# Entry
Amino acid sequence: MEAASLYLDLLKKSLTDTLVRTEPDVGAGRARFVLDFINHYIRGSAVTMLPRVRLDQLQACIEDVLRRGVPGDLLEAGVWRGGAAILMRAVLKVHGVTDRSVWAADSFEGLPEPDAARFPKEAAAFHGPVMRDAYQRLAVGLEAVRANFSTYGLLDEQVRFLPGWFKDTLPQAPIGHLAVLRLDGDYYESTRDCLVNLYDRLSPGGYLIVDDYGEDEWTDCRAAVDGFRAERGITEPMVQVDSRCWYWQRSN
Ligand SMILES: C[S@@+](CC[C@H](N)C(=O)[O-])C[C@H]1O[C@@H](n2cnc3c(N)ncnc32)[C@H](O)[C@@H]1O
# Structure
């Protein structure tokens, strides 16, 4: 393996806290997985809660758009402790890219409260003990995320933060084209706010990744994506990364 690959491999192991430990097994029973997830990511020191396969897929998308010259920046909507966005910045660094930015959009105060009338499944999870007490609704402040970038030597002017709710920050965000758009805001409205405000900025040939498309126990994320694709007549095939995460490549 060449030095760049070795660096990115080590970085992904560090971000996922899998240098020594193994990641929770998504194929284990639900109760076992949730417990292991809380222990490994929430109580642990991992900087991303993405499993390794999703980080590898994110890296592959970025390297593909760089290789093919697809114009635009990289954006993650929903960054938590920042790990996936840190990987985005590292991939640009490794390839000597100085004319693209990484955008990190988040409330930096956790998940918004879902409308219980429209999204009862999401509201039940939001108010349930796992999300409320164990996950603390995924709130991680901006300074903590900036510090995580800094820890890895990757906080610079090519990293741009968009603090606030997506519905408020994304419409007027000073973003031009995007080459990779990664949606990880969990809920229907968070996902739809991103699609409505950002999809038109995704360059042809760019990638749209939806972290929770395959999850239907606690989110209506898939309905947001399916509804948007139907409204806009998007027919590019969706590709599965693992049991939860899917993506498509924009063709026009
Ligand atoms: C599952 S976490 C993201 C995980 C992250 N991508 C990683 O690498 O570990 C979901 C994040 O989305 C954010 N979020 C969800 N809905 C949002 C919204 N409507 N506006 C702003 N932030 C939102 C939460 O604050 C949280 O940090």
Observations:
- Strands lie at 73-77, 102-106, 159-163, 178-183, 202-210, 239-240, 246-249.
